[in-house]
């Protein structure tokens, strides 16, 4: 019992931040993201004995969270494809300039199609390789790499095309 | 690797390097610039993705888990309690059965135990004290009566032995008292016509509502006693 408790606490401390961020970029809502993380860790606690390999913990948790998220849509079908600006988090950044830059890029990321955004989040936040992402999303590796390419390509084009606006914002 | 492939590969994973990619970066400054741009963009993306995590989230997660495991334990203790209760009930039933079920499985055992238990109270030499009238008064409880007196009746009273109310008669015998029991039929006790142990012998008569048992020592003509009883006794119902 005690060791299970210790394992769980270590898991929460090490991975809750990444999981929350992943969750947020999956659903674009702070509260839903938090609920999803809580539900995920609760399931993880119940099934902790089935987690044999600590290295696989992160992808295990992400798989649980994706399932929870899918369940949410089974219960209640509401339109998530439409992106609402008001939903984007307004976070305190180190400096105002950084803040505006982040906010601008966040909007762009949020506007990416979900199937492009998800692999990108997994790669950048999760640090997963193309194969691992392909595994988690049940896609083949080439598809994942193509989506990653398209995601970054769209962001890069957005950055390249809007220097004036950003300059104004920054100014 | 052509330029398009190179760009695709860098955009798909800016941190991935192999010989072909390294060669392309060295080969053309444009490629190097492109790589640097994408890496810089990736840093921005990483920063943008790193939204703040609610500070109380860790505590919430710990709290949820504590509640969950507390509930698990609660259901475990409930389970233990239920098991303990079941054991207690079984124990109670067993004690009940042992205390209140008949110790003696047949009439013979019952009668011999009864005689042995009370042997010291009766002497073969005591004066006869019971009249036929008072005997029949007692017999009325069992709906029976004796037609005439026979033998020398030393004692007649109700006895409770092993949970059964019975009428206990003690007659003067040749060397030791002869005991006669009149007791109602009891399903729990098996009827046996003849029985004995190392000192005593006995016969039982089975009537509609009652059993009449004679017990005496081995010198006693039990057959004769039984015959006398059988001829004398009559049942009103």
TrEMBL record, chain A:
Residues 104-155 form the RNA polymerase sigma factor 70 region 4 type domain. Keywords: DNA-binding, Sigma factor, Transcription, Transcription regulation. CDD domains: Sigma70_r4. InterPro entries: RNA_pol_sigma-70-like, RNA_pol_sigma-70_dom, RNA_pol_sigma70_ECF_CS, RNA_pol_sigma70_r2, RNA_pol_sigma70_r4_t2, RNA_pol_sigma_r2, RNA_pol_sigma_r3/r4-like, WH-like_DNA-bd_sf. GO terms for molecular function: DNA binding; sigma factor activity. SUPFAM superfamilies: Sigma2 domain of RNA polymerase sigma factors, Sigma3 and sigma4 domains of RNA polymerase sigma factors. It holds the Pfam family Sigma70_r4_2. GO terms for biological process: DNA-templated transcription initiation. Residues 11-77 form the RNA polymerase sigma-70 region domain. PANTHER family: RNA POLYMERASE ECF-TYPE SIGMA FACTO, RNA POLYMERASE SIGMA FACTOR. Belongs to the sigma-70 factor family. ECF subfamily. This is RNA polymerase sigma factor. It comes from Colwellia chukchiensis.
TrEMBL record, chain B:
It holds the Pfam family DUF3379. InterPro entries: DUF3379. The keyword Transmembrane applies. It comes from the Bacteria. Keywords: Membrane, Transmembrane, Transmembrane helix. The chain crosses the membrane at residues 81-100. This is DUF3379 domain-containing protein. It comes from Colwellia chukchiensis.
């Amino acid at each position: 019992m005690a060791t299970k408790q210790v394992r769980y606490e270590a898991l929460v401390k090490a991975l809750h931040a990444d999981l929350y961020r992943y969750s947020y970029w999956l659903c674009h809502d702070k509260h839903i993201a938090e609920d999803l993380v809580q539900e995920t860790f609760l399931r993880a606690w119940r099934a902790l004995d089935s987690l044999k390999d600590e290295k696989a913990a992160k992808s295990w948790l992400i798989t649980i969270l994706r399932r929870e998220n899918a369940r949410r849509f089974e219960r209640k079908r509401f339109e998530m494809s439409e992106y609402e600006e008001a939903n984007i988090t307004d976070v305190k950044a180190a400096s105002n300039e950084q803040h505006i830059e982040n906010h601008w890029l966040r909007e762009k990321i949020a506007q990416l199609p979900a199937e492009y955004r998800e692999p990108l989040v997994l790669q950048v936040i999760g640090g997963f390789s193309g194969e691992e992402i392909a595994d988690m999303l049940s896609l083949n590796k080439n598809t994942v790499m193509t989506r990653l390419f398209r995601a970054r390509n769209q962001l890069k084009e957005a950055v390249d095309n809007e220097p004036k606006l950003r300059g104004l914002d920054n100014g | 690797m052509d330029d398009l492939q190179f760009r695709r590969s860098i955009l798909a994973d800016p941190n991935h390097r192999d010989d072909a990619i390294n060669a392309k970066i060295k080969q053309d400054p444009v490629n190097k610039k492109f790589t640097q741009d994408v890496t810089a963009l990736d840093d921005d993306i990483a920063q943008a993705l790193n939204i703040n995590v609610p500070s109380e989230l860790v505590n919430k997660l710990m709290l949820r888990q504590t509640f969950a495991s507390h509930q698990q334990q609660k259901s475990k203790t409930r389970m233990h309690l239920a098991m303990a209760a079941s054991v207690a009930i079984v124990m109670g039933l067993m004690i009940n059965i042992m205390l209140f079920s008949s110790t003696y499985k047949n009439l013979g055992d019952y009668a011999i135990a009864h005689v042995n238990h009370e042997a010291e109270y009766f002497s073969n030499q005591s004066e006869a004290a019971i009249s036929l009238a008072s005997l029949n008064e007692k017999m009325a409880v069992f709906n029976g009566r004796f037609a005439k007196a026979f033998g020398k009746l030393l004692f007649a009273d109700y006895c409770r032995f092993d949970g059964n109310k019975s009428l206990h008669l003690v007659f003067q015998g040749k060397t030791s008292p002869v005991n006669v029991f009149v007791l109602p039929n009891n399903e729990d006790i098996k009827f046996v016509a003849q029985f004995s142990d190392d000192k005593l012998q006995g016969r039982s008569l089975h009537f509609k509502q009652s059993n009449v048992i004679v017990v005496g020592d081995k010198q006693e003509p039990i057959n004769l006693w039984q015959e006398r009883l059988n001829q004398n006794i009559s049942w009103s119902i």
